[in-house]
């Protein structure tokens, strides 16, 4: 059908686009390689910025967040054995909402598929794109039950298939540029079946390596430990993980950490990339498919939502009203925030990793940045604005 949009990938980006299309009665098919059970349980992000919550709320997609999320308005830096609370809520007037990604995905699948009767096909195989630079674009895939090859003719494709999908790979190399940044740092990402041991996010800056504590709900906590890139998670036994967390997050008067079973333990090599432009013919990328921001500043899911809100509205204008201006401006509009957040992640990485870098120059500049954060009102306000996410893009 000529007005139909194919959304590839049912993560936060794809599901938000699909819900916006469905709410405007624009035909849409979502293709997802995994099962519904799998995507509703995949643990990842947990912090949604207030502007994103408000935007979802206005569209009626934030019921779960409003009912269950806890609001955070401060974070804590621990270094040299001391605790320093940073009250970004007071400085910016905005908060984070702690809402694990699987809960958001579950809410968005329910809203799209169960409540609005949207078409979502799970477990599809070998998704391929055709004629993206023509006016007869199409997507083909293998049906998991029949093994049949199916083809959907469409008006446009939303490429929301994450960092390892097919849509970015289908862009002709000569039509896009890919900017990359490798931090040369690894993070052991841990999910512990344990209640949080602090009321806010904790960043531990320690000569042995960075460590972090982030609530994921009343019984679940995410921890990070800086490690060598490519390290084997099996090198990290239960005892080693908890002993290292205790050491790196230790500070005068800090609550002892509550231990718990580690239900996720994987090594992330910290790197970023940005694809420019994010559109090619009838294909428009959104979220991790277009750009990756290492979880250093917890920006990835928020950027995915930002893209999806812009792209969803632009697709509705195009398909329902024949107005293509939103789609033409989509890539530039999305990239403004992408680059702000990428820059912030890089800046923040220097703060978090300087102490453990083994380089006295980096350690000195990281300490200078921290002192400025706690000693200068204007520096603190600028940091708070980026940390919680701007209302407007620069
Ligand atoms: P995804 O969530 O990756 O969704 C893409 C979907 O496409 C998936 O369901 C996938 O199965 C599907 N797919 C893949 N290939 C195909 C294909 N060929 N055909 C069809 N479907 C396909 N971000 C934050 O904002 N805050 C945080 O605190 C945070 N913490 C994180 C912690 C960890 C450990 C990790 C790994 C990430 C974290 N992030 C965080 C980043 C965040 O999870 C991602 O940025 C976010 O998931 C991006 O959403 P997306 O919809 O673009 O992609």
Folded structure, characterized:
The protein has about 400 residues and is α+β, with helices and mostly antiparallel strands. It has two domains: about 230 residues, FAD/NAD(P)-binding domain; about 120 residues, D-Amino Acid Oxidase, Chain A, domain 2 (2-Layer Sandwich), CATH 3.30.9.10. The chain is built from eleven helices and 20 strands. The strands form four sheets. Strands 6-5-14-15-16-13-17-20 form an eight-stranded mixed beta sheet. β5 and β6 form a beta hairpin. The radius of gyration is 21 Å and the shape is globular. Keywords: FAD, Flavoprotein, Monooxygenase, Oxidoreductase. It is an enzyme of class 1 (oxidoreductase). Its EC number is 1.14.13.2.
What composes the largest sheet? 8 strands, mixed
* Cα-atom radius of gyration: 21 Å
Rounded mean pLDDT is 96
Please tally the helical runs, counting DSSP H or I stretches of 4 or more residues.
11
CATH topology of the largest domain: FAD/NAD(P)-binding domain
Specify the structural class: alpha+beta
State the CATH architecture of the largest domain: 3-Layer(bba) Sandwich
| Number of E-type strands | 20
Number of domains: 2
- Give the distance, in angstroms, between the N- and C-terminal Cα atoms: 38 Å
Strand content: 25-35%
What are the segments in which pLDDT stays under 50 over at least 5 consecutive residues?
none
CATH top level of the largest domain is: Alpha Beta
Principal-axis shape equals globular
Which ions and ligands are bound to the chains? flavin-adenine dinucleotide
What is the CATH homologous superfamily assignment of the largest domain?
A: FAD/NAD(P)-binding domain
């Amino acid at each position: 059908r000529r007005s139909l949009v194919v959304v590839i990938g049912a993560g936060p980006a794809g599901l938000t686009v699909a819900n916006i299309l469905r709410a405007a009665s624009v035909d849409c098919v979502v293709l997802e390689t995994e099962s519904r059970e799998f995507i509703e349980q995949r643990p990842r992000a947990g912090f949604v910025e207030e502007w994103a919550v408000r935007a979802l709320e206005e569209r009626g997609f934030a019921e779960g967040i409003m009912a269950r999320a806890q609001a955070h308005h401060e974070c804590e830096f621990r270094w040299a054995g001391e605790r320093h609370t940073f009250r970004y809520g007071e400085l910016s007037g905005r908060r984070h909402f702690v809402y694990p990604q699987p809960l958001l995905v579950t809410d968005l699948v329910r809203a799209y598929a169960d409540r609005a009767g949207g078409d979502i096909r799970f477990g599809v195989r070998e998704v391929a794109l055709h004629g993206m630079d023509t006016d007869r674009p199409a997507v083909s895939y293998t049906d998991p039950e029949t093994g049949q090859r199916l083809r959907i003719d469409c008006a446009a494709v939303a490429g929301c298939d994450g960092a390892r999908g097919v849509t970015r790979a289908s862009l002709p190399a000569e039509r896009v540029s890919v900017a990359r940044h490798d931090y040369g740092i690894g993070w052991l990402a841990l999910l512990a079946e344990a209640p949080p041991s602090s009321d806010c996010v904790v960043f531990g800056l320690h000569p042995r390596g960075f460590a972090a504590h982030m609530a994921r709900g009343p019984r679940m906590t995410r921890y990070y430990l800086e490690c060598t890139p490519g390290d084997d998670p099996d090198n990290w036994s239960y005892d080693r993980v908890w002993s290292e967390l205790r050491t790196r997050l230790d500070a005068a008067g800090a609550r002892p950490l509550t231990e718990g079973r580690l239900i996720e333990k994987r090594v992330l090599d910290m790197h970023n990339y940005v694809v420019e432009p994010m559109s090619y013919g009838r294909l428009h990328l959104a979220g991790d498919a277009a750009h990756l921001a290492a979880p250093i500043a917890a920006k990835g899911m928020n950027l995915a939502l930002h893209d999806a809100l812009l792209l969803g509205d632009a697709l509705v204008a195009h398909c329902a009203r024949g107005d293509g201006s939103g789609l033409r401006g989509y890539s530039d509009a999305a990239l403004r925030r992408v680059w702000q957040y990428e820059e912030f992640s890089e800046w923040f990485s220097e703060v978090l990793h300087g102490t453990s870098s083994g380089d006295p120059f980096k350690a000195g500049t990281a300490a200078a940045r921290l002192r400025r954060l706690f000693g200068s009102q204007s520096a603190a306000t600028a940091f708070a604005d980026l940390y919680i996410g701007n209302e407007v893009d620069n």
